[in-house]
Structure formats: structure tokens, C-alpha cells
Amino acid sequence: MRAVTYFDGAVLREGTLTKDAKGITLLHSPAPQHAKRLEGVLTGLFSDHHVHLQLIDPSALASSRLGRVIDLGANVDVVRDYDLALENDGIECEYAGPFLTAVGGYPADRDWAPEGAVHQVQDAADAATVIGALAAAGVSWIKVVGNSDAGPVLDDELFRAVVREAAEHRLPVVAHAEGAGQVQRVAHLGASRLAHAPFTERLTDDEIAVQVASVSWISTMAIHEGEAYAHVVDNVRRFAAAGGDLVYGSDMGNGPTPVDLRDAEIEALREAGVDGVALLTALAPLEIGSGDLLLLPDGDPVRSRRLTIADLED
Q1: Which of 88, 170, 239, 309 is the most interior residue, by most CB within 10 Å?
Q2: Cα separation, 102 vs 151, whole angstroms
Q3: 38 in the same domain as 64
Q4: Residues 214 and 299 placed together within one structural domain of the fold
């Protein structure tokens, strides 16, 4: 038996760890006063809200600190097969299917984009057809691109058509917004989440307030450098301080990223003032009891590892 502090997804609580032949059990009640304490914080496996499973070896997730991943740009038939394989490894998976972009828009011209991972939306009828097919394929999100720095973007009318069709199927829209004014634009047109915390430009405080009221952000801060990194740290600092809904995402597969928690992303969030309970909340750990547990020495996610029976031995 061990006394332990655990994070339940919202707050830190006191609990009791016990072990038997079946494994480790966390009791959601404080341990007796005489019980030894397991130092650190326990929580469920973390979530990465922005990955690209076709650009990595997904089998490596089984031994990682992640218990849930959201794929934001892939061939829907391929990623659905990955979903089934990951489920067998105890990893929860959601996916959006292909990037929906303008004709000739990003990332249709990128060599790294797998076949079937990008759909160039022709018109409102095409949007209705593709979103209906994606809904039938089991997607949890619709991914839309508004990258004016790399090519044409959907006009306002067609973007709204995508949002309307997604709403018909009760699917939220996550947008890649890049280029001057695109972050403000996609929020105004109905996107409910940004695939990347804003990095093109420094948002004004008024623009931050609009973002806080209308959309959530996926961090993906560590993929940037230079001016873009300075912009994203500043924007995230003010967004989080204003109460914005911020979740951890690494853009796994974008370059040589680990198939695991990305420590550099954690450090970037800390640089933006997101730490402690706020950081754990952004990591959206799985509900305790639904899988393996993580032990965080001194409550530090960077030092986290999976809890083992050996941790309870004298």
C-alpha cells in the first residue's frame, strides 16, 4: 500500500495504491496515515491532439507515454486500419481523414502528403459529398486548411459550406490557419479549433479575446523557430492567461519528432507560462482506470514514465 497524489484530469487528489496478483489498483480515497508515500504524481496516459500516423511508425506508440492520439491529415482508409491496430495496443485513436483544401491549395503540392491524404474541394456540392463519406468512415473531426502563405484558400462562402456540412454530421472543424489574418478569418467562419497555435503574427489583445471566446488551440509550438516561435510563445502566453482552451499537440510526423511525448513541446508550453495543473490539463490524460498509469517525479511530465509493480515494492 502507498499513499499517492494523483491528477484526475481536473485537480490533484490524494489516493491509495495497492497491488495484488492482478496488478496495481488506485483507490480514490486517502491512504491511512501510516502508509508509505510514493513520491510524485500519478495520472493516466497523455493525449496528443495533432499527429500524422502515415508519417511515423505507429507501432511505437504502444510503449510510449501516450494513450490517445488524434490524426489530423491522412488517407482515411489507411488511418482507419491504424486505428484498429492501435486499439489492440490499448491506444485510443481519432482521425479527421484528409486535409480539405482549395483547388491548388496547401498541402496538395507537397511530396510528403500521402496519396489520398488531401482533398481539393471543388464547390459546396463536393464538400457535402466528401464530408458525408468521411462521416460514414467514422471520422471525429473535419480538417480544413487556410494557408494563404502557400497557395489559394477556400473562399468565405465555400469555407462556410464546409462548416455547415460538418455540423450536419455533428463533426467539429479544426483548421490549419497560416498567413496574415487567417487565424481571425477561420474563427469568424466557424472553425472550432486551430490545428496550430497562431504563429504567423502576434495577435492583438482584442484578437486574443475573440479566440478565447470562440476556438480552442492545439499547441504545436516546438515545430517553430525564430520569429514564428517568438510569435507563438507570446500568443499562447496571453491566450492561456485569458482562460483560453489549450491542448497539447506535437504535429508528430512533421520532421524528426519522437513517437512519444515531445519534451520540447512541454518546455515550450512552460516558456509560455503553462505549467503545473494547467500543463497537466492541456495533456488531457486518459481517465484513471482505463489503462496504464504514468508516474511523474515532482509532477514533471518530461520525466514521466509508466508505473510498474516494482514502484510499490519495499
Answers
A1: 239
A2: 9
A3: no
A4: no
